[in-house]
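# nightly structure sweep
# worker-07 picked up a monomer target from the shared queue
# config: single-sequence mode, recycle default, output format = structure tokens
# input follows
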Amino acid sequence: MFRNLYNKTISVLEFLGLTILSFSRFFTGKARYRKKDLLLVFYESGPASIGIVCLISLLVGLILAYIGSIQLEQFGAVIYIADLVGLAMLREMGAIMTSIIMAGRTGASFAASIATMEANEEIDALKTTGISPIDFLVVPRVISFIICFPFLCIVSDLVGILGGAIVGVSSFEISPIRYFEQTILRVDLTDFFIGLVKSIFFGIIVSLSACYFGIKSKRTAEGVGNATTSSVVVSIVLIIICDAIFAVLTSVLGI
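# output follows
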């Protein structure tokens, strides 16, 4: 057991080290990759994912508003639904829901595609021709996630707040102007940037997990399936752990 844990730790550290070196080559213009692939990965990480992110975020906003109204309505304070939904979406739910959706959608796709390349010995072919698989496969995906996750998080925040507004306006007769005024009064840029910073870290976690399990997969159909499953499960677990760390830090720092 301990031997296996040791080997896994060494494997992860080796992968992280190679990725850092690859990033240094990327920013100095020495990394070898195809710009066409980078654009395709950007599309998969951003525009292609907006629809599902908007749908889930809208439903999350609706759910938060209805749950909050159960208690707030008893005290005649339904206007504070705006506070609850706005704060929850900006600080927590926007980044978390975006990350979980992307882990299950795009992250799983990346892990499966890289694992399939490993099974078909395409990665060995890259090494034979002198191209680093980390340069060619990992760095473009990590960069696309780092750039796209904050934008998806912003979209998720706005749509989630809209979902809360729909409930407030339709079920509790709060005027739209009053609802959004209350949201603006309660949330501030600190809340917004906390969620944004979280989304960047979550993007790094999802992309690295997907690429790691893809490259380290066994060269069988079962290996491809296991890599995809492991990528999603590990990504979600690490996202929750990272969010817990952020919660403790923001509490200690008073933000």
